[in-house]
Amino acid sequence: MRHLALAVLLLAGLVVAARPVATAQPPDPTAPYRIGVSRTGDIWSTDADGDDPRQHTNTRRPRETDPDYSPDGTLVAYTVDPGSDARTEVVIANADGSNPRRLSDREGERQPSWSPDGTMIAVTDDEGIKIVRVSDGAVLDSIPAPAHTEVEDSHPAWSPDGDTIAFARDTRRATTPRVTPFTVGASAQDSFTTTATVRTPTVLAKPEIMFLVDTTASMVTTIDALRTNLGKAMGRIADAEPEATFGLAAYEDFTDGVERRFRLVAPLGKAEAVQTALGLLDLGDGGDLEEDWFNALHEIARSTNADGSYKVFSKPGTSRIIVLAGDASSHECDPTWPNPTVSPTPTPTPTTDPGPAIRAQDEPEECGPYWQRSTVIEDLTSRDGDPAPRDIHVVGVPVITSEDESLDRQGQATEITLATDGALIDAGASPDDIVAAIEDGITRIPVTVRPIAACPANVSVTFQPESATVGGNTEVKFTETVRFVEPGPSSAALGDVRCTIRFEFDGKTPDQPYEQHLDITRRAGPTLVVESQATSSPNGDPVPVTFTTTATNAAGAALPVRCDATSGALFPVGLTTLTCSTTERGRTVTARTFITVYAPDPNSFRDIWLAELDGTELDGTSVRRQLDLTRRFTGGCGRDDSAPAWSPDGTRLVYEHADALCVAILAGGSATRIVSGNPSDPAWSPDGALIAFSRYDGDSPSLVWTVPPSGGDAGPLIALDEDDVTQPAFQRLPDLRLTGAAVPAEIVFGGTTTVRLKVTNVGLTAPRAANVAITVPAGLLVDGITTTVGTCTATTCTLGRLAPGGVADIQLTVTGTTAGRHVVRASLPDDVNPGDNRVDMPITVAEEVRPPANPGSLSMAVALAPLESYVGGDDLVLSYRVRNGAPEPMTDVRVVTALPPQLLPVKAVVGCSADGATCPIGTLAPGQEAEVRVTLPAKAAVAGTAGGSVIGVGPDSNAADNTAATGVLVRQPEITVAPGVGPTGFVPRATGKAFPPGATVKLAWTVGLSQTPGLVVVKADGTFDTQFLVFHNDRIGPRQLEGTTVIGPAFGPVRSKDFLVVRSALQPPDFVNR
């Protein structure tokens, strides 16, 4: 017979709401870097807090300094200084100091700086800064020094984007380029020609100038003019030749007495002594018409000290000049005259025999005190027995004081100036014009210009003409033919052969060098020559620079040339690489030279320069342009700078300036002092939060200190016993953070749940390998595992080198096979913050839900998983389990469901009709059980029940256990923004309720900008309370605040009611201040 059985409500299978479980972060995680230092000549490191010191090298000798870590933090490069006379070298080792190896076989390299991609290192050596390939130590390029300066480059620092190297340049001697073209780049197969034009100096090299002045009464106006203006002229000469020295001598006539016949008033020395002597100079009588400057020339040329050295012009390698200024010719002796000591004209004046004591030495007796013209010329040039020629140039400046007499009346000045390669101002000069005439005469001294080539042995340069003799301040043009001497250089980098053409003047090199620089490449194909001038920028602004190009084929026909710049374009102060190319018959050749723009500055200084790089070279990189950065800075942050270090974003530089550190903003062209007290060795932390530096504090050892980049109070960070700790360098570290949750965390027996793991690299570099070990206990069965990065097995996920900021999402699906509490464990290898490298995720499996084992009864139980869901989130699965407790089969068994109407239609069924209303089971044998399932979408808020009844044909002793029900709870999360209206720049309050407890929710505006990351963690009661910014420059109008799930039980996107953004009445700066 048929019985309708009723079943009691079974509660044993009910489970509570699922909540995510994740390991909490330690309260104060350590920044993901270590700090390397040099401690008493060894490399050590500490953690970011200055703790956990570790030693990485251990040598008493040599000393290890200048640590710099590779971008991935796995290697460290440092300088090894053996001391004594041994040269430094750069060594690369693992970050822990193991496996050291030399960067190259070259000696003298130091101060390594890694490129951002880790393939290159910039190093300093005695020649400047070179770019070296890490894999084999090959030199890829170097930072060329401007050819018009003597510099020492040091402390290279590679920018984060790899496009620039900052470095310190100590400019000890800036000169003015004096050869046109100043630089030449060429590509040729055998030879090419170019030119060099020089303007001879206005004064000979290393001049020693003795002013020889007539001090008789007729010269009074002239002496006054010298007192007024000669000092300025000496200043101009010293500007052109800083090694110039000056002296002053005076002459009168023999009849004025021995003391006044010749006086050395001021020996060769500084100009100030000459100026002082001029002020004290007194004038004499002069006697007859002629004076006795022959004797003065002899005295200057031949007077000696007691040890035999010359009193005047004793220094070798100088240009010796006598400037003779007077208004009368000289007495002289000529044995061919009727009276050898009396000029035949204009009026003979007999001379009294002075006696043998003051007769002219080695002259005929009849000459008395006077000298022959030929003797004086020999005195000034050379005579037999001289160990070296005197080579004294005489500049004659006739002073016009009368019509009857002049310095060259007898042709004496003409003959002597010609014989001494000097100069004569033929027209003479009035007393007022005497100084201008002196300068003109010094400039007119003829000089022989000779070019000399300094090239490798396989390159020769010939000049046409070989030399030229011209006066000062005169242009001379030389044609230069450059030839490759077989076998010649092989093809290599652009400008692989370098020649310097130096110009000598009378065999001497002037204080300000005259040079031309050739960068030559040997290539088969057409010939290409690029010539560039050096250009002055007095105020430091960019200036137009012209250059010329010439390309010809083997027949001499002209070819078109392409360059990466335009002649006449503006170029900044510094050094810009100019690259040009030409093509013939498919063969392209390239030539490179440098455009030099300089700001005239005779002082020595040390600035921070920027070398901009071009990565288009086949062998790595090349220097495209060099700029003087700190030359522009005022306010105590320029012209005494060293040791630059980049901010992580590449927008700022910190560097040493005198006794302080300065931070420069590159885009703004400004710099600010941030800390004083003689700090050194600055280094910017990889997270940009602080700047570390070394500093001595009184008599205490050097410590590593830190200061905020914006300035403020500095504090000590690293102190290691009583040892000096210097040169901080930051080692970037990975910091993997592992979070996870099981959703739901409590399941019915035989139910499934998803374990969600998230691995985030919050560190500064990728780990060598990110491997997640997963342990699933026996009470859970792994159904499947997926990852967004790498690969997984049931026990391990291999994520590879997870980049900084990278995220890997892992999902593990498990089924509960044993009732009880089970813990899924996941872990990563320990890193800088091991507290977030593991997570335990408990999963509770409810006791198996089974119908009551009532003898003789058809019974049913029902279970829901999860019991609590959220609109738009996880589906709800109703499980109906039926048992035949009767001693005979039950037929036509079926389940009739009672489902919440808000969640219909059903999403899926197992063993039921498509609408889930009935679930036909059929016949159940005695003791047999059966299960059917209905899946409901969590599409609406519900707080009710779901269940049903089982019906069958057969004996049923207890109708009460034929019906079962369970509670159903679907929550609708809500977001409220208050107030509902606000201006741009406003921060409204955002609250939420009915969210999954412990979940992480991401908030974002539906319109406009949103703050990032915008995450909020839900409290245990399902609420949150936070603030959310409306940006100043954001859009106005209505918008909603939207919340989406990140970690925890899923829910659909939740939006607030409209929030209206209106235009702010305050401008942003005022609003910020308020």
TrEMBL record:
<feature type="region of interest" description="Disordered">
    <location>
        <begin position="330"/>
        <end position="354"/>
    </location>
</feature>
<comment type="similarity">
    <text>Belongs to the TolB family.</text>
</comment>
<dbReference type="Pfam" id="PF07676">
    <property type="entry name" value="PD40"/>
</dbReference>
<feature type="domain" description="DUF11">
    <location>
        <begin position="872"/>
        <end position="966"/>
    </location>
</feature>
<feature type="region of interest" description="Disordered">
    <location>
        <begin position="23"/>
        <end position="119"/>
    </location>
</feature>
<keyword id="KW-0732">Signal</keyword>
<dbReference type="InterPro" id="IPR013783">
    <property type="entry name" value="Ig-like_fold"/>
</dbReference>
<feature type="compositionally biased region" description="Basic and acidic residues">
    <location>
        <begin position="51"/>
        <end position="66"/>
    </location>
</feature>
<dbReference type="InterPro" id="IPR011659">
    <property type="entry name" value="WD40"/>
</dbReference>
<dbReference type="InterPro" id="IPR011042">
    <property type="entry name" value="6-blade_b-propeller_TolB-like"/>
</dbReference>
<dbReference type="GO" id="GO:0005975">
    <property type="term" value="P:carbohydrate metabolic process"/>
</dbReference>
<feature type="signal peptide">
    <location>
        <begin position="1"/>
        <end position="24"/>
    </location>
</feature>
<dbReference type="InterPro" id="IPR036465">
    <property type="entry name" value="vWFA_dom_sf"/>
</dbReference>
<protein>
    <recommendedName>
        <fullName>DUF11 domain-containing protein</fullName>
    </recommendedName>
</protein>
<dbReference type="Pfam" id="PF01345">
    <property type="entry name" value="DUF11"/>
</dbReference>
<dbReference type="InterPro" id="IPR001434">
    <property type="entry name" value="OmcB-like_DUF11"/>
</dbReference>
<feature type="compositionally biased region" description="Pro residues">
    <location>
        <begin position="337"/>
        <end position="353"/>
    </location>
</feature>
<feature type="domain" description="DUF11">
    <location>
        <begin position="735"/>
        <end position="838"/>
    </location>
</feature>
